[in-house]
Amino acid sequence: MPALRFDIITLFPEIFSGYLTQSLLHKAIEAGLVEIVVHDLREWSADTKHHKVDDRPYGGGPGMLIQVEPVIACVEAVQAMGPTPGQVVLLTPQGKPLGQRLVEQLSLHPRLILLCGRYEGFDHRVLEILQPMELSIGDYVLNGGEVAAMVVIDSTIRMVPGVLGDETSSHLDSFSRGNRLLEFPQYTRPREFRGWSVPDVLLNGNHEAIAAWRSAQSRQRTLMQRKDLLAAPTQDLPTIPPAVSGNDSPPAAPGTAPS
Ligand code: SAM
Predict the structure, then answer these.
(1) Pocket of ligand 1, candidates 67, 89, 92, 126: which has the most ligand atoms within 8 Å of its Cβ, to mutate?
(2) pLDDT in single tens digits along all 259 residues of the chain
(3) Cα distance between residue 107 and residue 126, in whole Å
(4) Can you give the pTM of this predicted structure?
(5) How far apart are CA 227 and CA 230, in angstroms?
(6) In CATH, what class is 169-231?
(7) Is 158 an annotated catalytic residue?
(8) CATH classification of 4-157, choosing from 3.40.50.300, 3.40.1280.10, 3.40.50.150, 3.90.640.10?
(9) What is the spatial distance between Cα 151 and Cα 138, in angstroms, rounded to a whole number?
(10) From the CA of 141, how far away is ligand 1's center (Å)?
(11) How far is the CA of 245 from the centre of ligand 1 (A)?
């Protein structure tokens, strides 16, 4: 059984076809770590001819709303398709803002049902009946919830054990469990480019010195770019663990002796 199953409910299932066949997500699906099932909301339309699922808002105003009946019928049917009903997540600009802490919490659910809106959004009874987790990816308005659903999936699968090659990388990333700050600067070959050099401390193999430099750089970058993060409580691992042997040097270029 996969560690995390996503059910996506959308009016535009085709939007996901390219996304599901690429990169880390594709590998995670192939490895059976993550399962993604896309459902076309129109299949639950009572209108068997045109598969209509939207109508004009009572009281007037621009645009159309997604109707309550197909959404409830669809969510109930989708819930019954899995071993657990899962957490229903309704994508909306009015929801709780998605941040790394919430991503980490979401990844602990065995099943997430992502409800993507379109047009002016949903009939409010969808929220009243389902009581979903309302989630926003930022204070701006998208045309639909599909891109937001991809953001949720993309960020959440990184937390699933086995998805990333190196599990420590998700601890060291910006905003993450390591220190909740921005990540330190990183460099790879060549050592020098147009007079710009890699800091000496990264080349001397002294893991304690490297960890101290990275820790200081992480704080410095956060101070410059995102001072607000320094005011928020940090937690979990207070310092960045020293790099382990074999992980600290970039791979040697083919046919080149490691420096
Ligand atoms: N009328 C709605 C409002 O003002 O709250 C906005 C509707 S928006 C044009 C259509 C759909 O896009 C929403 O139902 C939602 O699923 C999705 N969406 C738009 N912005 C989003 C955001 N910032 N986060 C998550 N989903 C969003």
Answers:
(1) 92
(2) 899 999 999 999 999 999 999 999 999 999 999 999 999 999 999 999 999 999 999 999 999 999 999 999 999 999 999 999 999 999 999 999 999 999 999 999 999 999 999 999 999 999 999 999 999 999 999 999 999 999 999 999 999 999 998 878 888 899 999 899 999 999 999 999 999 999 999 999 999 999 999 999 999 999 999 999 999 876 544 444 444 433 333 333 333 333 3
(3) 24
(4) 0.90
(5) 6
(6) mainly alpha
(7) yes
(8) 3.40.1280.10
(9) 11
(10) 5
(11) 47
